[in-house]
Amino acid sequence: MALLILAFSIIFSLSAYADGLEPDLTLLPTSAKQAFVMDAQLPAEYWHALDDRSYLAITGFSVGEHMIAAAGQSLMDRPDHHTCSVYDSTVCYDLSKFYESAMPQILISGFFMLNGSTAITWGLDSGYRSEKLTVTPAVLLGLSKRWFFSEKRDSQFIVEASGWAGQSVSHTPCIDSQDRLYYCGTLSAWSDFSYDPHPTDLYLKVWYEKAF
After folding, report:
1. Does the model's pTM come out above 0.85?
2. For 126-150, b where at least 16 C-beta lie within 10 A, e where not — what string?
Protein backbone atom coordinates (compact mmCIF):
# COMPACT_ATOMS: atom_id res chain seq x y z
CA MET A 1 0.00 0.00 0.00
CA ALA A 2 1.43 3.35 -1.01
CA LEU A 3 1.51 6.08 1.61
CA LEU A 4 1.58 9.80 1.11
CA ILE A 5 3.68 11.51 3.75
CA LEU A 6 2.92 15.14 4.48
CA ALA A 7 5.88 16.75 6.23
CA PHE A 8 6.11 20.17 7.80
CA SER A 9 9.23 21.45 9.47
CA ILE A 10 10.55 24.58 11.17
CA ILE A 11 14.31 24.84 11.63
CA PHE A 12 15.79 27.69 13.63
CA SER A 13 19.52 28.27 13.87
CA LEU A 14 21.06 30.92 16.09
CA SER A 15 24.68 31.65 15.21
CA ALA A 16 26.84 34.16 17.03
CA TYR A 17 29.55 35.44 14.72
CA ALA A 18 31.31 38.77 14.40
CA ASP A 19 33.02 40.37 11.41
CA GLY A 20 35.86 38.23 10.12
CA LEU A 21 34.25 34.87 10.91
CA GLU A 22 32.50 34.19 7.65
CA PRO A 23 30.09 31.31 8.44
CA ASP A 24 29.07 28.91 5.73
CA LEU A 25 26.61 26.02 5.87
CA THR A 26 26.74 23.68 8.83
CA LEU A 27 29.57 21.21 8.30
CA LEU A 28 28.04 18.29 10.22
CA PRO A 29 24.52 16.89 10.61
CA THR A 30 23.00 17.91 13.96
CA SER A 31 19.75 15.94 13.71
CA ALA A 32 18.48 12.44 14.53
CA LYS A 33 15.36 12.97 12.45
CA GLN A 34 16.09 10.07 10.09
CA ALA A 35 15.89 7.62 12.99
CA PHE A 36 12.23 8.40 13.77
CA VAL A 37 10.36 6.11 11.37
CA MET A 38 6.57 6.23 11.58
CA ASP A 39 5.09 2.82 12.29
CA ALA A 40 2.38 3.56 9.71
CA GLN A 41 5.10 3.28 7.06
CA LEU A 42 5.80 -0.33 8.11
CA PRO A 43 3.73 -3.53 7.91
CA ALA A 44 1.53 -3.89 11.00
CA GLU A 45 3.56 -6.82 12.36
CA TYR A 46 6.57 -4.52 12.75
CA TRP A 47 4.78 -1.83 14.74
CA HIS A 48 6.44 -1.20 18.12
CA ALA A 49 9.51 -3.17 16.98
CA LEU A 50 11.76 -0.16 17.52
CA ASP A 51 10.18 1.09 20.76
CA ASP A 52 12.86 -0.36 23.04
CA ARG A 53 15.78 -0.48 20.64
CA SER A 54 18.92 1.52 21.48
CA TYR A 55 21.96 2.03 19.28
CA LEU A 56 24.76 4.43 18.42
CA ALA A 57 25.06 6.06 14.99
CA ILE A 58 27.68 8.29 13.35
CA THR A 59 26.15 10.78 10.92
CA GLY A 60 29.04 13.05 9.96
CA PHE A 61 32.83 13.06 9.75
CA SER A 62 35.16 15.79 8.50
CA VAL A 63 38.94 16.22 8.43
CA GLY A 64 39.93 19.81 7.75
CA GLU A 65 42.72 20.47 5.28
CA HIS A 66 41.98 23.79 3.59
CA MET A 67 39.26 25.05 5.94
CA ILE A 68 39.23 25.81 9.68
CA ALA A 69 36.00 25.33 11.62
CA ALA A 70 34.44 26.67 14.82
CA ALA A 71 31.08 25.83 16.39
CA GLY A 72 30.27 23.47 13.53
CA GLN A 73 30.63 26.20 10.92
CA SER A 74 33.33 27.28 8.49
CA LEU A 75 35.47 29.82 10.35
CA MET A 76 37.94 30.68 7.58
CA ASP A 77 39.89 29.20 4.70
CA ARG A 78 43.44 28.45 5.68
CA PRO A 79 45.71 31.02 3.98
CA ASP A 80 47.76 29.55 1.16
CA HIS A 81 51.01 30.59 -0.47
CA HIS A 82 49.43 33.64 -2.10
CA THR A 83 47.61 35.84 0.42
CA CYS A 84 46.91 39.35 -0.87
CA SER A 85 45.95 42.51 0.99
CA VAL A 86 42.29 43.49 0.99
CA TYR A 87 43.45 47.06 0.35
CA ASP A 88 45.85 46.37 -2.54
CA SER A 89 45.65 43.12 -4.50
CA THR A 90 49.21 43.62 -5.75
CA VAL A 91 50.60 43.26 -2.22
CA CYS A 92 50.82 39.51 -1.58
CA TYR A 93 52.80 37.31 0.78
CA ASP A 94 53.12 33.67 1.72
CA LEU A 95 51.48 33.43 5.15
CA SER A 96 50.66 29.74 5.08
CA LYS A 97 53.34 28.89 7.67
CA PHE A 98 51.49 30.97 10.27
CA TYR A 99 48.44 28.69 9.97
CA GLU A 100 50.14 25.32 9.82
CA SER A 101 48.88 22.88 12.43
CA ALA A 102 50.69 19.78 13.65
CA MET A 103 47.38 17.91 13.71
CA PRO A 104 44.43 18.27 11.30
CA GLN A 105 41.13 19.45 12.73
CA ILE A 106 38.71 16.53 13.05
CA LEU A 107 34.94 16.88 13.45
CA ILE A 108 32.51 14.03 14.05
CA SER A 109 28.80 13.92 14.90
CA GLY A 110 26.12 11.33 15.54
CA PHE A 111 23.32 10.31 17.86
CA PHE A 112 22.53 7.71 20.49
CA MET A 113 19.00 6.27 20.42
CA LEU A 114 17.78 5.66 23.96
CA ASN A 115 14.54 4.15 22.65
CA GLY A 116 12.27 4.48 19.64
CA SER A 117 11.26 8.05 20.47
CA THR A 118 14.24 9.61 22.26
CA ALA A 119 17.75 10.32 21.02
CA ILE A 120 20.80 12.21 22.27
CA THR A 121 22.69 14.03 19.53
CA TRP A 122 26.43 14.47 20.01
CA GLY A 123 29.52 15.74 18.27
CA LEU A 124 33.22 16.39 18.83
CA ASP A 125 35.59 19.00 17.41
CA SER A 126 39.30 18.35 18.03
CA GLY A 127 40.16 22.04 17.66
CA TYR A 128 42.97 23.74 15.78
CA ARG A 129 46.29 25.18 16.90
CA SER A 130 48.71 27.23 14.83
CA GLU A 131 51.03 30.21 15.38
CA LYS A 132 48.36 32.83 14.58
CA LEU A 133 45.10 31.01 15.35
CA THR A 134 43.90 28.74 18.12
CA VAL A 135 40.49 27.05 18.20
CA THR A 136 39.89 25.00 21.32
CA PRO A 137 38.11 21.62 21.24
CA ALA A 138 34.31 21.59 21.58
CA VAL A 139 31.40 19.21 22.01
CA LEU A 140 27.94 19.11 20.45
CA LEU A 141 25.10 18.05 22.73
CA GLY A 142 21.41 17.86 22.04
CA LEU A 143 18.15 16.03 22.60
CA SER A 144 15.60 14.77 20.08
CA LYS A 145 12.10 13.68 21.12
CA ARG A 146 9.20 12.21 19.12
CA TRP A 147 5.50 11.93 19.98
CA PHE A 148 2.78 10.06 18.10
CA PHE A 149 -0.60 11.75 17.80
CA SER A 150 -2.75 8.62 17.45
CA GLU A 151 -2.76 4.91 18.20
CA LYS A 152 -2.44 4.29 14.46
CA ARG A 153 0.97 5.93 14.62
CA ASP A 154 0.30 7.69 11.33
CA SER A 155 1.28 11.17 12.53
CA GLN A 156 4.27 12.30 14.56
CA PHE A 157 5.68 15.45 16.11
CA ILE A 158 9.45 15.78 16.62
CA VAL A 159 11.35 18.45 18.55
CA GLU A 160 15.13 18.70 18.47
CA ALA A 161 17.46 21.08 20.32
CA SER A 162 21.23 21.01 20.12
CA GLY A 163 24.27 23.26 20.28
CA TRP A 164 28.06 23.42 20.40
CA ALA A 165 29.67 24.18 23.77
CA GLY A 166 33.18 24.93 25.00
CA GLN A 167 34.59 26.51 21.85
CA SER A 168 36.90 29.53 22.02
CA VAL A 169 38.81 31.27 19.23
CA SER A 170 41.99 33.32 19.56
CA HIS A 171 43.72 35.21 16.74
CA THR A 172 47.25 36.65 16.99
CA PRO A 173 48.24 39.57 14.74
CA CYS A 174 51.12 39.69 12.28
CA ILE A 175 53.67 42.48 12.79
CA ASP A 176 55.52 44.19 9.93
CA SER A 177 58.97 45.78 9.98
CA GLN A 178 57.47 49.02 11.30
CA ASP A 179 55.73 47.28 14.20
CA ARG A 180 52.29 47.69 12.64
CA LEU A 181 49.72 45.01 13.49
CA TYR A 182 47.82 43.12 10.79
CA TYR A 183 45.23 40.37 10.61
CA CYS A 184 47.20 37.68 8.80
CA GLY A 185 44.20 36.15 7.04
CA THR A 186 43.63 39.15 4.75
CA LEU A 187 46.58 41.46 5.52
CA SER A 188 44.12 44.02 6.86
CA ALA A 189 44.82 46.40 9.73
CA TRP A 190 44.36 44.73 13.09
CA SER A 191 42.17 47.66 14.16
CA ASP A 192 39.76 46.82 11.29
CA PHE A 193 39.45 43.18 12.32
CA SER A 194 37.05 41.87 14.94
CA TYR A 195 35.89 38.40 15.89
CA ASP A 196 33.84 36.53 18.45
CA PRO A 197 36.18 34.68 20.84
CA HIS A 198 33.35 32.34 21.87
CA PRO A 199 31.31 31.43 18.75
CA THR A 200 28.15 29.43 19.31
CA ASP A 201 25.72 27.63 17.07
CA LEU A 202 22.37 26.60 18.55
CA TYR A 203 19.64 24.67 16.72
CA LEU A 204 15.93 24.24 17.36
CA LYS A 205 14.09 22.02 14.90
CA VAL A 206 10.40 21.15 14.87
CA TRP A 207 8.95 18.51 12.56
CA TYR A 208 5.39 17.33 11.91
CA GLU A 209 4.59 14.42 9.60
CA LYS A 210 1.27 12.81 8.63
CA ALA A 211 0.77 9.65 6.60
CA PHE A 212 -2.32 9.26 4.40
Report:
1. no
2. bbbebebbebbebebebebebebee
